[in-house]
Amino acid sequence: MNLILRILLSAIAVVILAKVLPNVSVDSYMTAVIVAVVLSLLNLLVKPILVILTLPVTIVTLGLFLLIINAIIILLADKLIDGFTVENIWWALIFSLLLSFLQSIFFSLLKDDKQ
What keywords would UniProt list here (predicted)? Predict the structure, then answer.
């Protein structure tokens, strides 16, 4: 049940960011749910591989290269999903930062609801 709530909250965050950011768009709410699921899977499967492969660059940049890896994950989701578009890597970077921020707020509300 917690996983479904997290995916739905992530989908809501995707819809909010698509409304706020001019170069990010989502066609429908179902597409936003698909984006949330695909981003979760990409973060689970692809991101660890990218982090290991780019470890020297990440160390030299003191971890800031992880932001670029997050943007690459967003662009990969853009290529995989038809109704989700992100204009370029800079908008993907802004989208990933704001998505992380919104998810942390939403998930903290979910955690406070349990107590």
Answer: Membrane, Transmembrane, Transmembrane helix
Decide if 93 contacts 35 (C-beta within 8 A). Answer: no
Largest Cα separation within the chain, whole Å, is: 41
Strand partners, 25: 85
How many domains does the structure of the chain reveal?
1
How far apart CA 4 and CA 85 sit, in angstroms, is: 24
Q: What is the sign, positive or negative, of the torsion defined by CA atoms of 73, 76, 77, 83?
A: positive
Sign of the CA dihedral with 37 first, then 82, 54, and 60 last: negative
- Nearest Cα to 5, choosing from 77, 111, 115, 98? 111
- Over residues 85-110, mean pLDDT: 94
Please say if the pLDDT value at position 96 is more than 80.
Answer: yes
pLDDT tens string 12-45: 999 999 999 999 999 999 999 999 999 999 999 9
